[in-house]
Amino acid sequence: MDGSSAFGQRALGAQPYRSVLAAECAPRSPQRPSLAAIEPEDLLSLFDETAGAVAGALSELEDWGPAGTRPGQHRSDILADGAAVTALLDAGLGVCSEESGLHRKDRPIIVVVDPLDGSTNAAQGLGWYATSLCAVDERGALAALVRNLVSGESYTAVRGGGAYRDGSPIRPSAASELSEAVVGLSGCPPRHLGWRQFRALGASALDLCAVADGRLDGFVDFAAHCPWDYLGAMLVCREAGARIEDAAGRDLTTTDPGALRTVLAAAGETLLTELRAALDR
After folding, report:
1. Which of 174, 132, 172, 173 is nearest to 155 (CA)?
2. Which of 24, 77, 83, 150 could form a disulfide with 53 if both were Cys (CB 3.0 to 4.6 A apart)?
3. How far apart are CA 266 and CA 274, in angstroms?
4. Which domains does the chain have, with CATH numbers?
């Protein structure tokens, strides 16, 4: 965006950024189904409200900088966490949050949430950050939403139901050769791995969704991540038809806040195989 936009003003230190979602996604209190009868579509509606609550809370924040609580935690993280966790617990769900850990692990559905993925980007005025939510039941990832808090663009997926961006179906690119691929990175690669170009964008959930919809051809994680960083986007990728896995072969789906995974994603199996081989060289 240019310097005259709301985002441009915040980046230049003028008025604080007000999310495009704040006005239209203010918290609401509809009648909710019981947890025993909750459907994936009900979860997506709840996630939409939750992302709206986060956006509304952040729209009033003036200081997006470090909170002074622990390394890497920003004031925006704490505010976003309060809005998201409250909404999810009030709906009868368990929560595994980056900022506040595991809540009500006895509940049959646990929502793994990164209330503000890319908080450093947000603090620096870089417009690539999101809220990511993924509901996990006894069978695995059930429903997910990843919302870009700058553009308002939303990725959604339901187990067995496909993946969508703002209601339209998405598919990965047709890229099959690493030498022709544009690859998203998290962390610093030890060497050039043979891609055509790379991008280090700073918000793993959005980076992985960009693989799902074909804007990136692949993604390589050079710094292990916790489940809230990737789970929502994992379901989006799988339902879109992209390939995604842990580099060490571990199950990506977990609600353990201490679990670490090294994520690889690609438009298809051929490109994923090339990425694996490049990492092993």
Report:
1. 132
2. 83
3. 10
4. 6-169 (3.30.540.10), 178-280 (3.40.190.80)
